[in-house]
Prior knowledge:
The chain is built from four helices and 16 strands. By secondary structure, it is mainly β. The protein has two domains: 2-54, no CATH class; 95-330, Porin (Beta Barrel), CATH 2.40.160.
Amino acid sequence: MASFWVGLMLSAFAAGEGEERPGFGRPLKNLLEEPAWLREEEAEGQAGNPADRQRAPEQDPTQPRRKMVEREQEVVIKAQVYSEEDRVGPYKQPEWTQHRRWPTTRVYLQQPPGGVEFEQWLEIRVPKQGGKRNEVRLRHELEFGLGSRLQLDLYAHTRWTRHRSGDDSADNSLEWRGWSAELRWALADWDEIFGNPTLYFEYILFNDAEETIEPKLLLGGEIAPGWHWGTNLVYERELAGFRDRTEEYKITAGVSRTLIDKYLSIGAAVETAYVVERDGSTRADRAREVHIGPSLQFRPIPKAHLDLEPLWGVTGESKRLKMFIVFGWDF
């Protein structure tokens, strides 16, 4: 009986050397290969799930790697030392530029499209002995992001004047001065042009003076991680006849160092001005002023910033002190 089954198996293997026959399975050499169903599964595994093929591969953590939305702005997170240097908004500008870093020097645009901010300015002017009276200038500002790299700022101005000691001919006074409006236009997105040049134009309507224009060129950028700079070239003049107008040529500059990311930075600021005042005659009073001092910014919460900038005069024609205090709030 055993010899019968052995003979039957040998005949089956012998049949396997030829063509496949019904009832006897595949040829012998195919028995040593992987089954067709197994090869099909492996092929499907290599092809992968179409959804998996569309999934982006893992990126180098040192490269831009994710995006998020903050205050309705697209934020590109980079491997930066300071998160305030992350690029935000449609203009790809650093986050720190959206909060006025120096009161006397402006950089790029502060508001993204649709953004609104309120700033309260306090400027204290203390003249040297024999100079003009002490002044406290108040400015109430609203900033609007218009899109297309445009920003509109509206100001309301008031002034408090204190009479000098021993001068009984004048009393302290608080007066409404007038309005002004400024428009900024950045020439390109951030870092596309060196210095990120931005054109600035301000129109001033004061009650006690001629209408005034003030065009500026705003420049600024990043020196190194945590180090920022800004420079403004300014020309201001009254819209009066040549013999009756006042003109001012000014250069301001600032540098800052971040101490606590998004909270605290310190630096230095300088303001130089050449002022020509005419009184209707051929004579003109000319003054060369230079003020220099420290600058500090404190941001207690993301929506608020407080800037402090006391500048001391270093020339005989300069004021003794120009102190700037600015509080801002983003809506």
